[in-house]
Fold these 3 entries.
Entry 1:
Amino acid sequence: MSIDLVALDLDGTLLDSHEQVSEANRVAVAAALAEGVRVVLVTGRGVEAPTQIARNLGLALPVICCHGALTKDVSTGRTMGHIPVQAVYAKPMLAYAQESGIDLAVYLEERFYRIAGARQYMSDMRSPEWNEIASFDALPGVAPTFVRFLGSAAVAVARNRFAQLPLHFKYETWGDFEECAVTSREATKRHALENLCATYGITRERVMAVGDSRNDVPMLRWAGVGIAMGNAAPDVLRSIGRTTAGNDDDGVARAIEQYVLRGRYDARSA
């Protein structure tokens, strides 16, 4: 069965270690689009970066961001799906972080907010998408899209103090950096992708998904063809039967060529 939609994670997958889309990946995505295959970005990032990348690649589908909590139409900016963290659960996290001094960021109204002077763990924390505030009390009293515990000390707090809440805790390690993203239980990459595919009448058997992180695993298992990047953590590689090259070796391009383009070329020549 041919692939009609390709779902791509960003960090560690479509993006190389310099946060760039390689020429080979760019060419492969363009070739898939030329064959009528839809391509969607599915990422833990906020709206800004995936929207820019989608536009640069000529992608027409909405972007799934914030670990599946938010789906945005690239062309119009319309919100197609939003599953926030309920304020009753988010407020105690923000209050504790402010009182104890642990590093926490909250994504609200398509902007990240953190306490002024807090440590910057990543280069993108200097982007316009990030805002420093004197107090979380200054934020509007609405439910955030997701909350991020940044650094090992903050992650320990997430595990030991808040993990009993009926939310989804997504733990990730990037080199020496640990973080935990907290979303609603219903906000996952898999569920958002499944909903998007239903909108376009695409069955899971015709979906290829590629990713490298633990929060990608349910999405990869759901897709008809789920592929783990060669640079994925050992437990991710064990969970997924198919693998491709790493993100610095054009793993996405190789996966598209093998599972998407080759099948269509073979079908036409049969």
Entry 2:
Amino acid sequence: MTAPLCLTLLSGWGVDARIWQSLAPFWPENVNVRAVDWPGYCHTPPLSSHTLADLACAMAEPLQTQSVWVGWSLGGLLATALTAYLPEPQGIILLGAGERFCADDGVTDNELKAFIRAFERKPYSTWRHFLRWQTQGEPDPRLAYRMLSDLLVKPAADTATLSAGLNWLAKIDNRKRLASLSCPVIQLVGDADPLVGTPQRLKSQVLADAGHCPMLSQPALLAAALIQQAAACQQTVTWLFSQRRGYGYYG
């Protein structure tokens, strides 16, 4: 009997788990979905030291191995990076994320550095700017921004947590990590995502008529895609396990 399908949803920079609420009507009853917050967001205690090792300790329970991790944007970068410290899940779905955040024809290194400097001067207004920036690729950017603004009246994390997140956006490079993972990794991207460069887009499966926030503009399409890809991850893991048993491997 196939085990129940479990998804763990991980949000991106400056945005908490409420971003996934719009998908709730589209989850089948037989799918277990858990949206979790990163440390420092909403009511989750912040980290005392913003290292990946400390982050892994804090996320060891939420990031269950019998689950497919869905990491959006920074959430995808962090989910991948944390496999260096935690057991691998059944699969990882990177939504609007890839090996690195910056790309020559996406968000460049210089643009991110300028954004970080602006955040240091004016955290709140820079955060608001980022909300507007990431909705620009949606079919109706104004509506998407209004939905996001209604959902997030103020940042759900303190300035130190947000600054640490920007530091991770700038520094995490998962090229070696992705090449060494044994679990399936699937990449999804909106066809008009303004934060993703062409090389990353070519490696990804594309969501039509969506930008960086398909949970706002295409919730039904996104939920269906996540279920389909998570099921494929689970099937791959089940097949690999059966092959190992057939050859006498139980490690």
Entry 3:
Amino acid sequence: MTSSPSGRRAGKSSLSAVASRRVERPAPLRQAVYDALLELIVSRTLAPGQHLVEAELAEYLGVSRQPVREALQRLQTDGWVDLRPAQGAFVHTPTEEEADQLLAVRSVLETYSAKLAAEHATTQDVKQLKRLQKAGEDALAAADAERLVQANANLHAAVAAIGRNKVLAEMIGLLDRRVRWYYTPIARPHSRDSWNEHAELIAAVADGDAERAGEVMRRHAEQTRQTYHNRKNIENN
């Protein structure tokens, strides 16, 4: 998904379709512009490798070019954007190694969070997980990739919160946007297996079986990692 004139036209069209996400003025402007651009990247409305034109982004967000320029500089510092001399800004294209390292760390953290969730879950917590599972299955039935990605993020966040370890939940939360970024292109091909694994996890949490919950989460995270690396074969088929 490299930059090209046709690619820029496609990007402009997709951005126009989400014009309702224009920045709200009451929020601190710099932060609001940063958050808006980051969400467009995470959702892949702005695709990896896409050229980012300040004037166009400013128009879409309803702001001047200065906060957009500042946001792009900050996004570069945070690893979301590449600023190339004499060429401009481009959405960062993650390497296989970058994705592998992040998903491996996610596996370690979430395996532990699943164990803690099984040890601490209440009846209400299990009901919440089942509601989130139902939301994911509904999105799967509707073939709605955006809802699938959000439902997946919501369920994993709930598991972390149920574990009652705030530090661990915060660390998992810091990874959330990048996990969503990597998960978006594989949401549909991976999702049936993914939601079956979620159901297994919820059953283990409901039974209070920490070891089984941890093992299910470990396998689940590893499957996501492998599916991400195999995504090109999936797309070609």
